[in-house]
Amino acid sequence: MERGWLQGEGFLLCLILYLLLQERGDTFAINCSGFDQHGVDPAAFQALFARKAFLPVTNNNDPTHVNISFTLSAILEVNAQLQLMTSFLWLNMIWYNPFIRWNPEECGGIRKLSIATENLWLPDIFIKEFMNVDHTPVRLMAYVSSEGHIRYDKPMKVTSICNLDIFYFPFDEQNCTLTFSSFIYTVENMILGMEKEVWEISNTSQNLIQNKGEWMLLDIHQRMVKMTVGTNQYNQIIFYVAIRRRPSLYVINLLVPSSFLIAIDAVSFYLPAESGNRAPFKMTLLLGYNVFLLMMNDLLPDTGTPLISVYFALCLSLMVLSLLETIFITYLLHLVTTQPLPMPQWLNSLLLHCTGPRKGCPTAPQKGNKGLGLTPAHLPGLKEPMTLVGKVPGPQEAGLNGCPESTRTWQEDEAQKQHLVSLWVQFSHMMDTLLFRLYLLFMATSIITVIILWNT
Ligand SMILES: *[C@@H]1O[C@H](CO)[C@@H](O)[C@H](O)[C@H]1NC(C)=O
Ligand SMILES: *[C@@H]1O[C@H](CO)[C@@H](O)[C@H](O)[C@H]1NC(C)=O
Ligand SMILES: *[C@@H]1O[C@H](CO)[C@@H](O)[C@H](O)[C@H]1NC(C)=O
Ligand SMILES: *[C@@H]1O[C@H](CO)[C@@H](O)[C@H](O)[C@H]1NC(C)=O
């Protein structure tokens, strides 16, 4: 009984094999006898070539499966103004054509043939973001295998629209999409698939993009979607191409010079306000900065407001502020040395408090000036105030000199005035230091804010 069952199974197997072979034999569409001696016979393909206008299916309800992949070989340009990314890629497509099979044993072992693509039905795969005419070279060839698989590769220069966000320029990353879809075939007629895993596409592209251009490829992701238009559904494959800008060019040409200028501007606060050099110096810096901005304008993206523009505007306003501060201090110094007003009591006590041994407010000007080798004696028309002040309250000294009363009162008046001037000068220096510190604080906070924004 067991044996009979086995026999039955063997018979069934033979039957199936026979049927399969029968079917295979029937569907060899191409008679390739003689190919091994006389080369390919064009007559054998005439029937196939005549069908190229129609979808290669035996049953109209069967969809054609087209598997696609691509290799990104260069990122040529990213245009922020037009929101375009120009890249170069090799598109690979594989599909099955049931009318093109032959038996390799009959044909001297020929397993694949190349056929000019104008003789074949080609899938109408296009990239939805494509914003240019297709410059694909004509007269490309496709490889056809004996099982009916057709492999078609074509190079494409793709100018695709991409939503570019340049806020973080030059430290920006972009996520551009390439959506592959059939132009007219709905899901009933064409189904798209992946020819390779997406990590393979990403890896080969990364290895292939050898140019050290502005952009580097980070990663490629993929998603399959069905797009519905009216009652029709279309198969789509969306590739997300993540790219990152190499910022070194912009760091060297934009950020470093600008930081140097702003640093020099900050340091120039140490130029003595009395010498009158500070304002011209700052003005020159401002001029230099404007020239720098003009020259660097074409390196910046033309649209949107990247953070770097805010940074430049900030640097410019810091310079303008510091120039204004210098003008103010110079004016103050001029005012107090020529026509000192009586000092309000509160200001006087504040000054005394600040110049006292416990320093709770901006540095005492004398001390700061000593550090720079400058004393108020450098002021035009002003004598050393400390010595004068020290001299004034000595009535014995005046008596010793035996000066007349009028000279004494004049001298006292003069000393009083000098004392007042020196107090005012002290006050101006205090103001200068205070404003300088405010400036530094503002500069530090704004630059730290910009850097934090850049890092997020
Ligand atoms: C293929 O063509 C040759 C002549 O070119 C013919 O003799 C042969 O029978 C054909 N084979 C089939 C399977 O049609
Ligand atoms: C397309 O890909 C699918 C799944 O990876 C595979 O089953 C099918 O054979 C492929 N088709 C062609 C024509 O390579
Ligand atoms: C990408 O390819 C390189 C060699 O070309 C290999 O070392 C690496 O492991 C691959 N990465 C992935 C994710 O497969
Ligand atoms: C790009 O965008 C898509 C969809 O918004 C997202 O799934 C993908 O993770 C993004 N890729 C990167 C690298 O940010």
TrEMBL record:
Molecular function in Gene Ontology: serotonin-gated monoatomic cation channel activity
Domain Neurotransmitter-gated ion-channel ligand-binding span(s) in chain numbering: 52-247
Reactions it catalyzes: Ca(2+)(in) = Ca(2+)(out); Na(+)(in) = Na(+)(out); K(+)(in) = K(+)(out)
Keyword annotations: Cell membrane, Disulfide bond, Ion channel, Ion transport, Ligand-gated ion channel, Membrane, Postsynaptic cell membrane, Receptor, Signal, Synapse, Transmembrane, Transmembrane helix, Transport
InterPro entries in UniProt: LGIC_TM_5-HT3, Neur_chan_lig-bd, Neur_chan_lig-bd_sf, Neur_channel, Neuro-gated_channel_TM_sf, Neuro_actylchol_rec, Neurotrans-gated_channel_TM, Neurotransmitter_ion_chnl_CS
Gene Ontology CC terms: postsynaptic membrane; serotonin-activated cation-selective channel complex
Record flagged with keyword Transport: yes
Cellular location(s): Postsynaptic cell membrane
Domain Neurotransmitter-gated ion-channel transmembrane, chain residue ranges per copy: 254-355
Reported function: Forms serotonin (5-hydroxytryptamine/5-HT3)-activated cation-selective channel complexes, which when activated cause fast, depolarizing responses in neurons.
Record PANTHER family: NEUROTRANSMITTER GATED ION CHANNEL
Protein name as catalogued: 5-hydroxytryptamine receptor 3D
Organism (species): Molossus molossus
Lineage start: Eukaryota, Metazoa, Chordata, Craniata, Vertebrata
